[in-house]
Amino acid sequence: xxxxxxxxxxxxxxxxxxxxxxxxxxxxxxxxxxxxxxxxxxxxxxxxxxxxxxxxxxxxxxxxxxxxxxxxxxxxxxxxxxxxxxxxxxxxxxxxxxxxxxxxxxxxxxxxxxxxxxxxxxxxxxxxxxxxxxxxxxxxxxxxxxxxxxxxxxxxxxxxxxxxxxxxxxxxxxxxxxxxxxxxxxxxxxxxxxxxxxxxxxxxxxxxxxxxxxxxxxxxxxxxxxxxxxxxxxxxxxxxxxxxxxxxxxxxxxxxxxxxxxxxxxxxxxxxxxxxxxxxxxxxxxxxxxxxxxxxxxxxxxxxxxxxxxxxxxxxxxxxxxxxxxxxxxxxxxxxxxxxxxxxxxxxxxxxxxxxxxxxxxxxxxxxxxxxxxxxxxxxxxxxxxxxx
Length: 389
What we know:
Elements: H1 6-15, E1 33-39, E2 42-47, H2 57-69, E3 76-82, H3 87-100, E4 124-131, H4 139-152, E5 157-161, H5 169-173, E6 190-192, E7 195-199, H6 214-226, E8 233-239, H7 246-254, E9 259-264, H8 268-283, E10 288-293, E11 298-299, E12 306-307, H9 314-322, E13 326-329, H10 334-341, H11 346-349, H12 354-375, E14 383-387
Helix pairs in contact: 4-12, 6-7
């Protein structure tokens, strides 16, 4: 965003110092600050914050004014606040834009382009799949904490337990009971910690094994997705089963998934399977939002000593190999396991603690990535102008 005008270049340099509180990235680089221009001694710019960052609006406006009014020759700052259009209109625009360019919306195009068009989930704006190549890497724990972290930031969030054979989210979310149905055709999600939850675990006995073949499992997933009355969700976090089987393929073929988060441990054997999972999503045209390295180090609950019992740096190396983002590393601690087993995820049980802060940072990075992917498909926003008094 270079400028030949020295005064404008000064203003841009001042605005370059403003950062998103969660990701630490420049607001200019994120394009949340746009259309910076000079009108005599006044700096005018547009502030286009995604929904999850609206809580920062006053801070950003104040910091921008402080930084700009310190510049020589600048006497006034005018901020135009962009207001997002309705989600349904934006979604329709995205499809129209995709078809007019011979492509498809985010998450809607598989390789070859011959498959059926993926249908949006009613009541859901963005779908995020949390996946792993193998079991035992803490994927469900990561999924539930990310959902709670996104909800804690003021977003409307749902959590779909897509692990039909081993549903664990009812326990981790501390919810139980049978979903209600008001029309005999759809069901209401259960809710806790501000997160709407759907799981096959609400409908079966906890000790009942799911001895189902693939077609029945995929039908159950579709019913959970389409027959749950999701209530105006910004994000639906899908806790995927491990591996690259029927459920993964069904989700990728039927639903416009915004992106996938891959969970792994630093262990070589886990990374081998995580790579396969990452390649599967790439093959079916689902963007990779990034990789989370779980159980990165073991933290002793007695003395605090840390040890890399599953190896070191494997997740970051995998990201470098595939050119995807490393979202963060999480430790292996007793508290994470105890809190999940008790139905109080770490983000809820200790919201100001270091583990919750790590989950919050990862959730923010994911939200930023989703906003960046949606940016090119957004409608033009009407502007509200705020001037200095």
